[in-house]
């Protein structure tokens, strides 16, 4: 029996066909990861737009809920004011505070308060702040999907 060159420890000489086969094998090793990467990129590209729309709609819905809650609180406050103004004491209070009216023999002093939080602009700003969600992830997702 004769031993082959490889088993005897002698260097194996390869011809041009063997080096082409080796190069083809090296190319094939990169083909599968490249193909998988392209498939993943195409899937990400295809899902980006629907996920972006879904995220923006969820943010808008959260903002609208916060605004609705602020408006409900304001309506409750206005309802309580209506009930109060339907009494003689309430009418007298409004006449004194708003119109500056006084009874005969009384002197009026006006004190001005600079902060007035009953305005609709303040309520809308508070609703917007509540819907913002000041978290790191929220900011990152806003960066990726944008805001309306």
Q: Given the C-alpha coordinates, what overall shape results?
A: rod-shaped
Question: Structural class, please?
Answer: mainly alpha
What's the number of helices?
A: 5
Instruction: Please mark out the parts with pLDDT under 50 across 5 or more consecutive residues, or reply none.
Output: none
How many strands appear in the DSSP assignment? Answer: 0
SSE order, one letter for each helix or strand: HHHHH
As a percent range, the share of helical residues equals over 70%
What value does the average pLDDT take? Answer: 78
Strand portion: under 5%
| Rg over alpha carbons | 38 Å
How far is the N terminus from the C terminus?
A: 82 Å
Describe the structure.
The protein has 148 residues and is mostly helical. It is 72% helix and 0% strand. Helix 2 packs antiparallel against helix 4.
How would you summarize what this structure contains?
The chain is mainly α and 148 residues long.
């Amino acid at each position: 029996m004769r031993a082959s060159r490889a088993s005897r420890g002698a260097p194996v000489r390869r011809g041009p066909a063997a080096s082409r086969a080796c190069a083809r094998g090296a190319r094939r090793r990169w083909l599968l990861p490249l193909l998988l990467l392209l498939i993943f990129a195409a899937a990400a590209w295809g899902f980006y737009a629907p996920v972006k729309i879904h995220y923006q709609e969820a943010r808008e819905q959260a903002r609208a809920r916060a605004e609705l809650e602020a408006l409900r609180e304001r309506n409750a406050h206005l309802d309580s004011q209506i009930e109060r103004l339907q009494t003689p004491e309430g009418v007298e209070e409004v006449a004194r505070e708003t119109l500056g009216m006084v009874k005969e023999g009384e002197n009026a002093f006006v004190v001005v308060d600079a902060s007035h939080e009953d305005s609709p602009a303040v309520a809308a700003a508070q609703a917007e702040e509540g819907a913002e969600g000041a978290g790191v992830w929220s900011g990152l997702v806003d960066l990726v999907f944008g805001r309306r």
